[in-house]
Amino acid sequence: MIARRKLLTGGLAGGAGLILSGCDRVVQIPAARKILFAGEDMQRGLHRALMDRNALAPEFTAAQRSPFFRPNGTRDPGTDAYRALQAGRFADWRLQVGGLVTRPLSLSLSDLGAMPQRAQITRHDCVEGWSAIAKWQGPQLGTVLRAAGLRDAARYIVFTCADLYGGEPYYESIDLVDAFHPQTILAWALNDRFLPVMNGAPLRLRVERQLGYKHAKYLMQVSAVASLNGIGKGQGGYWEDNVDYDWYAGI
């Protein structure tokens, strides 16, 4: 089987021309989408069958960090609401945690900073073919979900963001296996500084065993749900809904 990663990064002849950029012409061709993103369920099953569900993504030393962590996708949400939060240095920003929980939360950056922290230096692998190594810090998503108290019916965690695509908030989702992975954190710091706007301020998801498009930026809301049906177009994320990206992007 040809690895999708190898195809997307140009490991095959002509592969460079198929690299996805989110608006690349190739993903507008139905036949190309089926080839590039086929086998998702098999990939997820094999990935989890062959690896410990808590196995860690590789971590690196401070000396191995990339000199620059490039922005990708939205560089600035640019809405009036976001500009107001930015002008106040996000003092009025709150992360809403709700859905199928017993204790809905409204968390400030100070609240998140007061929780037990995890810092990790990891490699970000983008579906477009580039990668970068950086240090991220924040509480584990599992810590936040335990504080909120997941209900038994919860199966997925949905992340709603401040940036708009087609007039609707960007969103992504993961299941509980990845939500409670030790390296899945809500990062407020990049390389020992508050997140820059271009990288997702004030908070972004880091789900280190998945490709970069799963790492939602500009987080506003975390919701526990029983099903992805009825959310967006039902495929679990903006790119999944609109250009047939895999919902499960394990690496």
Textual characterization of the structure:
With 251 residues, the protein is an alpha+beta fold. The chain is 22% helix and 24% strand. The strands form 3 sheets. A 5-stranded mixed β-sheet has the order 2-1-11-5-6. Strands 3-4-8-9 form a 4-stranded antiparallel β-sheet, with no helix packed on it. A hairpin with a 5-residue loop joins strand 1 and strand 2. The two termini are 16 Å apart.
Kindly summarize this structure in a few lines.
The protein is an alpha+beta fold and 251 residues long. It is 22% helix and 24% strand.
Question: Using DSSP, what is the number of strands?
Answer: 11
Overall mean pLDDT stands at 86
What fraction strand? 15-25%
Uncertain segments of ≥5 residues (pLDDT<50)?
Answer: 1-27
Q: What is the approximate shape?
A: globular
- Major β-sheet strand ordering: 2-1-11-5-6
Report the radius of gyration as a whole number of Å: 18 Å
Amino-to-carboxy terminus distance: 16 Å
Number of discrete helical segments? 8
Major sheet, described briefly? 5 strands, mixed
H/E element string? HHHHEEHEEHEEHEEEEEH
**Fraction of residues in H or I helices:** 10-25%
Structural class, from secondary structure content?
Answer: alpha+beta
Q: What topology does this entry show?
A:
Blueprint: H1 4-8, H2 30-36, H3 40-50, H4 80-87, E1 95-99, E2 105-107, H5 109-114, E3 118-125, E4 131-138, H6 141-148, E5 156-165, E6 168-175, H7 176-179, E7 185-187, E8 189-190, E9 193-194, E10 204-206, E11 219-225, H8 238-243
Parallel strand pairs: 1-11
Antiparallel strand pairs: 1-2, 3-4, 4-8, 5-6, 5-11, 7-10, 8-9
